[in-house]
Design brief:
This protein is α/β, with parallel strands linked by helices. The chain folds into three domains: 67 residues, no CATH class; 219 residues, Vaccinia Virus protein VP39 (Rossmann fold, 3-Layer(aba) Sandwich), CATH 3.40.50; 138 residues, Tetratricopeptide repeat domain (Serine Threonine Protein Phosphatase 5, Tetratricopeptide repeat), CATH 1.25.40. 43% of the residues lie in helices and 11% in strands. It is built from 18 helices and ten strands. The strands form two sheets. It has a seven-stranded mixed beta sheet with strand order 6-2-1-7-8-10-9. Strands 3-5-4 form a three-stranded antiparallel beta sheet. Bound molecules: S-adenosylmethionine. S-adenosylmethionine (SAM) binds next to loops.
């Protein structure tokens, strides 16, 4: 579409959208920008695009406005098994190797960042389902985030038309979907349950963070998203992804987005037909970029499941993360389990617990955290950290007990209500989730929107209120009624 609004207005508008929403509209895309504003205008009660555009530049951007703009300006194009070449490499080489290395702890965290309507996240879940013969013995997190609530709602429903299967392997629908008789297909509950969808805006949310479960990731898919961002914004997002990954973790972007400048902190790993990025933070570690052979065609027989491992008590999938923004320091002379002697070291167990958790060393993190609790039993923040570690280990019942203890010590500990809401939601207890999310909103009324919440990695009260409101809206109506 040819842009018709004045250049000066489109220029200001594109700058405003880049800063507030994160989408980049260079002059050659001003036609798309104008079309999006024209579509959004009736939602803002305007009959013409120009008045709407001028109003947007002066009005404070509320969550509702942000959502409306996001839904009209973002490109949600996606489908199952998109960009097969990288998926083949992942399914045949990278994931099997990663799963082998995790056979003891049986823990895996993957993030579909910019998930649109969910096809990518479900594709990842299906890949894992075909690789792991005993998924119930693993603690697998697949977090899928987007800033378009309409996309997220559709993703959570998991119902798709023909178009979403346009490049999918032949076996996909028969094995993983149920036909609804109206030309639509619904993802089977086993796969649906593997994915947690939530709202996150790359432009103005904080990540990695404990509050949105975005730390200690093994793999981040961010495909066909950064191409719509300015170079500066994309670099900033790539830096955040680097911090959100564990050492050795992988970043997967689309072939069109491969750029060693943009992803300069990462090591590019070249495969025949695809480049993936890897975080190699610790040069002295055991990580290696090994030689990977050319992938085979993506046929059913190429997926070789791992041998089953003996059953373990870890059975469910729950979001939790750690403050990956905390700088990782070298362990001091004190060992986990030993009381620090010097008064300066009093905060040490808590810091060490966080740092170990950031790196995915959960057993060690637990030891440090228990040490922090022994030294100060009445501190709710210590119990809160313990709960997040337990949650990440898949120990939901004990995590719930720790969160209840936090609320016993401090009934106004807003993040404990938030975590309990997320826990209940991920386990399908929507009524309880709703209750805790409502508590969060009530408690947040005591704070100014710009106020940073304690233990929340810089998250403000206003932002948490927006996130929780979006979560409440996405809870299945039937279960809450
Ligand atoms: C083209 S889709 C890509 C979907 C999927 N990753 C794939 O490759 O098939 C781009 C997605 O990025 C999301 N997105 C764009 N800007 C975003 C932002 N600032 N924060 C969060 N999500 C964003 C859009 O809403 C859209 O769903």
């Amino acid at each position: 579409m040819q842009a018709t609004l004045p250049d000066s207005l489109l220029s200001s508008l594109s700058e405003f959208i880049a800063v507030r929403i994160g989408l980049y509209f260079p002059p050659e895309r001003w036609g798309d920008l104008e079309r999006g504003i024209a579509e959004a205008a009736p939602d803002f009660n305007f009959t013409d695009r120009e008045s709407c555009a001028r109003w947007l530049l002066t009005a404070p951007l509320t969550r509702h406005m942000n959502e409306v703009l996001a839904s009209h300006l973002s490109v949600g194009e996606t489908y199952f098994f998109r960009e097969k070449q990288s998926l083949e490499i992942l399914g045949e080489q990278v994931l099997p190797q990663l799963l082998q290395s995790r056979r003891q702890e049986r823990r895996l965290r993957i993030w579909s960042a910019g998930c649109s309507t969910g096809e990518e996240a479900y594709t990842i879940a299906i890949l894992l389902d075909r690789l792991i013969p005993d998924p119930e013995a693993w603690n697998i997190t697949i977090l899928a985030t987007d800033f378009n609530p309409k996309f997220l709602r559709k993703a959570a429903q998991g119902v798709y038309g023909e178009w979403s299967f346009r490049d999918a392997p032949g076996w996909l629908r028969g094995r993983y979907f149920t036909g609804r008789g109206d030309g639509h297909f619904e993802i089977i509950p086993r796969i649906r349950k593997m994915v947690t969808f939530s709202y996150l805006n790359f432009a103005d949310d904080i990540y990695p963070s404990l509050s949105n479960n975005t730390g200690a990731m093994d793999m981040i898919f961010c495909r066909n998203v950064l191409m719509y961002f300015s170079a500066q914004r994309a670099k900033q997002v790539a830096g955040n992804f680097y911090r959100a990954l564990v050492d050795g973790g992988w970043l997967i972007v689309s072939p069109a987005e491969v750029s060693n400048t943009l992803f300069s902190p990462f090591a590019p790993v070249e495969f025949p037909g695809a480049v993936l990025y890897r975080k190699i933070a610790n040069a002295g570690s055991q990580l290696s970029i090994r030689e990977y052979p050319a992938p085979l065609l993506f046929e059913e027989t190429n997926i070789v499941p791992l041998p089953a491992v003996p059953a373990a008590p870890v059975t469910a999938i729950v979001p939790a993360s750690f403050n990956a923004a905390t700088p990782v320091t070298n362990p001091p002379a004190v060992q986990a389990g030993q009381a620090p002697a010097h008064p300066d070291e009093r905060g040490l167990p808590l810091r060490m617990a966080r740092n170990c958790a950031n790196q995915g060393s959960l057993d060690e993190a637990l030891e440090w955290c228990e040490q922090a609790i022994t030294a100060d039993k009445m501190n709710p923040a210590h119990h809160y950290l313990l709960a997040t570690i337990l949650q990440e280990q898949g120990r939901h019942d004990t995590a719930t007990q720790s969160l209840m203890r936090v609320l016993y010590l401090d009934p106004d500990f807003v993040l404990a209500h938030f975590a309990l809401g997320n826990l209940h939601q991920s386990q399908g207890r929507f009524r309880q989730a709703q209750r805790h999310f409502n508590n969060v909103l009530q408690l947040l009324r005591r704070h100014l929107p710009d106020e940073t919440l304690p233990e929340a990695d810089g998250l403000t009260a206003g932002r948490l209120a927006e996130i929780v409101t979006a979560l409440l809206e996405s809870l299945p109506q039937v279960a809450v009624a």
